[in-house]
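Box 4.2: Ligand-aware structure prediction
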Amino acid sequence: MAACPGKFKNRTCYGMVHKCKSCGGVGCDRDGCSNQGFKLSKCLKCGKIGNRENVR
Ligand SMILES: [Zn+2]
Ligand SMILES: [Zn+2]
């Protein structure tokens, strides 16, 4: 499982990174992370919901 390299509250996030099956966007699902790409299963790039997979 890929660990998120983004920053969360001044620390490295290490959250789970997901990939959107629609737009290919990769991002973290943690609200407030600098690498955030999803919010409550919704892709922030294309707006699709529940269309993501885990990045390995
Ligand atoms: Zn993150
Ligand atoms: Zn997307």
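In the box above, the bound molecule is zinc ion. The first strand starts at residue 7 and ends at 8.
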